[in-house]
Amino acid sequence: MSDTSVTWLTQEAFDRLKSELDHLSGEGRADIAKRIEAAREEGDLKENGGYHAAKDEQGKIEARIRQLTELLRTASVGDAPTSTGVVEPGTVITAKIQGDSTKFLIGNREIAGDSDLDVYSEASPLGTAILGLKVGDSTSYTAPNGKDIAVEIVSVETYRG
User: Fold this and answer.
1) Cβ atoms within 10 A of the Cβ of 29, count?
2) Which of 105, 121, 125, 131 has the most CB atoms at less than 10 Å from its CB?
3) Is it the case that residue 158 has pLDDT exceeding 90?
4) Per-residue pLDDT tens digits for 120-137
């Protein structure tokens, strides 16, 4: 049983993530192994803060490697979908949420890279509520805190990364 979903990525985002994965899988693993070995040589492992910190970092690196491997394995790489005024993954949305205008990207956080643009997953409560809506459409969704949040789609644009 798999709940794998396809994630749209720009070529730039795919290349950036592939480079990160290559670094972590090679040089990153080698560096952390050296740090663990050096800390291990310091003696008693029960009270060795350097050893435990290095092991924690190793766990984080391995988790990121698994995350990137799965993301890249299931990625659909290409140009952002050309906006037709319909909310879909890879489009930039301007919406009035509870009356406040907000601009964000629908898709995976990894797409935006260093951009200041907020990103909401299409699987998030907001993303699920607005997928398929057109400019001018309104809806509401239930936030994780249980409140109903009103949303009106103001514009849908092609993501320009």
Assistant:
1) 15
2) 105
3) no
4) 988 889 999 999 999 999
